[in-house]
Amino acid sequence: MNATLVERVRSWIEGDPDPADRATIEQLLDDGDEKELSRRFDVPLRFGTAGLRGPVMAGPAGMNRYTVRRATQGVVAWLERLGVDPSRGVVVGRDARRGSESLNDEAVRVLLGAGVAVIEMPRPLPTPLVAYAVRALGAAAGIMITASHNPPDDNGYKLYAADGAQIVPPNDELVEGFANAAGPATLADRSSPLHRVASSELWENYLDHFSRRFAAPGTSTLAITYTPLHGVGGEPMMELFRAAGFVAVTPVAAQYAPDGRFPTLPFPNPEEPGALDLAMATADQNSSDLVIANDPDADRLGVAVRAPGGWRVLRGDEIGWLLASTLLDEMTASDDVVATTIVSSTMLELMARSSHVRFVTTLTGFKWIARAAGSGVLRFGYEEALGFAVDPLVADKDGMSAALAICQLADDLARSGATLLDRLDEIESRYGVHAGGQLSLRADGPGGALAIAAALQRLRLASPSTLGHLPVSSLVDLAEGWHGLSATEGVLMELRGAGRVVVRPSGTEAKLKVYIEITASPDDGRPLDEQRKICGALLAAVREEMAELLRL
Question: How do the domains of the chain map onto residue ranges?
Fold first, then answer.
């Protein structure tokens, strides 16, 4: 067996605080299972997407107590480097995933042992409440144990800076460097005077603000079916609905209680085909007009609308347009800003320009959207992956407040005999059809990252001249920056006024992702349905060609 690998394995065993994990690694070492040890040790989890995310398993490639211990030591050293007063405290929260409680406990013990005050969330709660708490309490940072919408066997560690937004470079690199250099940790328990549990007032203030901000005028008769997809959004979301006047809400019983096994779903992600099937079936039984879904940590929002031919699940971009159509009307200050990412639809820019509101394009991820306003105020931000920020009170995506906002719009439209689909027709009639779609190419295994990098390089060196019969007018290597954005891994291809294609590696999974948008002019002259059909056919053709070009 490789001597260097054995040395790294033995070093890990010495520091690992979990007896079961130590036993697992020791058994692999005794068995001489170099392949499995390499899987667990050769590619450690990295601080990407503002934290760590990966399978729950022993070793540096997995989420486990030792990984969290070292990461939290890295956070402590990072706060010291920044000169942040540790008495301000670090907010620590968790979802209901497998292992979340023990990982939460590890983070708390390390912080307290290092002399850092801890404000711990009282039970498994949605991720947006940790982001909200950091800002509301003036804390030094926030840690959330969650893997959001990842598969059941994953968990993660999300880190917020003092502004309540996810950390960005170079802070992620600093934390990772400090974590890798960490020695033995000093630990303390919750009897420490530095520990306190977040008071109920925190939730009450959040509830009061958003239930007022997005209240129905009087009691709403809008019939809604809601699912938290076995996550932690159930009770908080139902309380928000009631407080905001949405009383005709039916929860999906089989998916209501938190359950980290996600027994009714192959993937607990509202974006996945079939994820909302049970909710739509429940909605049919209850004659609901609208389906609302949160992902397991309630930072994302999924929506399905009853249509003449059955249920229609809205794309993230479409939800973004709908929210913008009402929120832009409220923006009058010169420092108001709306933002979306380079892989989201270009529609928001057109809508913002028409409303004379400053628009910003960011790199992919809410860590960038949250800071898009600079010295201004981010009034609305969204990403196509069902992430929406509808109020500056929370400096991150928030599926709960966004759910109230879309329900308020749906209720308002219903009172005049219209629907969300009618509003989408109005938007695309005014600004042009914007058909969007994705392609995800998975690259599992140790060679996955290399395969993804190789596919991107092939595209750079031999870019197509046409896609779906549309001319490729330019190719931008995003690694060299674009329109003032920082360098990032990926490629953008413009389709000569008819849309664009962005190709980039996923920040959370071993995937190469392709984002396609095909557009038509609002002056096209053809009926909206015909324009949509044409754009949809072009989109399908582009997707098919990209799948062939990027075969992993």
Answer: 1-42, 46-198, 220-431, 433-549
For the whole prediction, is pTM greater than 0.90? yes
* Element at 60 (helix H, strand E): none
Q: What is the tens place of the pLDDT at every residue in 501-542? A: 999 998 767 789 999 999 999 988 899 999 999 999 999 999
Instruction: Please give the CATH number for the structural domain made up of 433-549.
Output: 3.30.310.50
**Would you place residue 314 in the very low, low, confident or very high pLDDT band (cuts 50, 70, 90)?**
very high
Backbone angles phi, psi at 527, to 5 degrees: -60, 150
Q: Does domain 220-431 fall into CATH 3.40.120.10?
A: yes
> What residue ranges in 178-272 does DSSP mark as E strands?
195-197, 224-227, 249-251
Q: Which residue in 434, 379, 367 sits closest to 161, CA to CA?
A: 367
Name the CATH code of domain 46-198 (choices 3.20.20.210, 3.40.50.720, 3.40.47.10, 3.40.120.10): 3.40.120.10
Catalytic residues: 148
Whether the bond between 251 and the residue before it is cis, its omega within 30 degrees of 0, is no
Q: pLDDT of 4-51, one tens digit each?
A: 999 999 999 999 999 999 999 999 999 999 999 999 999 899 987 669
E strand spans, 146-273: 154-160, 195-197, 224-227, 249-251
